[in-house]
Amino acid sequence: MLYHLLFPLADQFAVFNLFRYLTFRTGGAVMTAMVIAFIIGPRLIRWLRQWQGQGQPIRDDGPESHLKKQGTPTMGGIMILTSMTISVLLWADLSNPYIWAVMLVTLGYGFIGFTDDYLKVSKKNTKGLSGKLKLLGQLLFAGIAAFIVASVQPESLNTHLALPFFKDVLLNLGIFFPIFAVLVMIGSSNAVNLTDGLDGLATVPVIIAVGVFAIFSYLVGNFVFADYLQIHYVPGAGELAVICAAVIGACIGFLWFNAPPAMVFMGDTGSLALGGTLGSIAVVTKHELVLAIVGGLFVLETVSVIVQVASFKLTGKRVFKMAPLHHHYEKKGWAEPTIVIRFWIIALILALIGLATLKLR
Fold it and tell me: Who contacts 100 (Cβ-Cβ below 8 Å, separation ≥6)?
């Protein structure tokens, strides 16, 4: 809104010319989302605590250390989504269709997560929304977003898959591209959801991954930089850096209250939405495969669950003491802060490897 309202005033007041620059609006989005989160956080947590009473139900078969977290309110993702959305509406170019495609997935998945959290809290159990309904909702929002992206992008890109490390290779997936795009968004959403099991564990890796995709968005949306780096130019994709910045600011604000010992959990409201944001931005920027590197921590957590389930069904034996992977190390006796910080380090290393794909072509 600020872009559309204030930039036209640049003819009368030169200072408003700042709103023309994506870098300025990106910085504004970070600060705005962070400040909003700091302001609404305490009141939201008090309200959630009063409404939820005993907070998020704790699994009986989970690590024993989690029992002491009983009473901590969940659905803190409301703080993230509120801060992020207001910031995006203020600082982004709202005429850009990519903004609406990504926000559709973010808020749509946030709604699914909110419904799941609400059912868990209101019914006082860990079941929540059925898996089929969750998947159906995710398919719906991701499908609409994939259609928007494909209809906006140039024909030379809209159904194509870019391969990292190869500067000129594009695989035309044709009618299968929307299916692939939907799988990326759903997979990313559920991977972040699986990672969100310890205080701060998912928040910082999301900040790191979104920070990398802020760089990707800016570069692929700038013809000069895209040509120099020999990556595929996606007109208009640079505006997604504003969304990435808003997510970073909102997550930093949330982390203030989610740092161990957490005052609030993000719940599925936050984790499903943030994963969807990452997946949809990867689809727009043609960095779907690089997302598997940058978000490698989320991939590891997901693979650990798949391996555990497959092994138990096929052999009756478990590979890990408990899945996802962070619970395995809890069962081994690692302290929660140790697991969280080491996983942060892994996320940072993988993000740097993902960034290296910009030049290794």
Answer: 94, 148
**pLDDT surpasses 70 at 11:** yes
Q: Characterize the bridge pairing of strands 160-162 and 170-172.
A: antiparallel
The CA distance from 347 to 294, in Å, is 7
* HSE of 282, CA atoms in CB hemisphere, 13 A: 33
First to last CA, the chain: 38
Question: What is the 8-class DSSP label of residue 94?
Answer: T
Structure tokens at 233: 């130019």
Provide the token pair at 115: 């419904």
15-42 residue pLDDT tens:
788 888 999 999 999 999 999 999 999 9
Using alpha carbons only, what angle is made at residue 272 by residues 200 and 148, rounded to the nearest 5 degrees? 135
DSSP string across 259-274: SSSPS---HHHHHHHH
Task: Give the span between the Cα atoms of 228 and 224, in whole angstroms.
Answer: 6
Contacts of residue 262, Cβ cutoff 8 Å, sequence gap at least 6: 69, 72, 199, 200
Which of 45, 69, 66, 19 shows the shortest CA–CA distance to 253? 45
Please give the mean pLDDT across all residues of the chain: 91
Asked whether the beta carbons of 74 and 55 are under 8 A apart, the reply is yes
Q: Measure CA 273 to chain center.
A: 6
Two tokens, residue 191: 């991977």
Q: Partners of 161 in the beta sheet?
A: 171
Taking the C-alpha atoms of residue 220 and residue 236, their distance in angstroms, rounded to an integer, is 9
pLDDT at 5: 79
Q: pLDDT at position 61, please?
A: 55
Q: Say which residue, 217 or 156, is predicted with more confidence.
A: 217
Yes or no: say if 96 and 88 are a contact pair by the CB < 8 Å rule. Answer: no
Q: At 120, is the pLDDT very low, low, confident or very high (cuts 50, 70, 90)? A: confident
pLDDT digits (tens, 9 = 90+) for 53-111: 766 666 555 565 555 667 789 999 999 999 999 999 999 999 999 999 999 999 999 99
Size (the chain), residues: 361
Angle of the 267-285 helix axis to the 131-152 helix axis, nearest 10: 30
d(C-alpha 214, C-alpha 253), whole Å: 18
> For residues 262 and 155, is the Cβ–Cβ distance under 8 A?
no
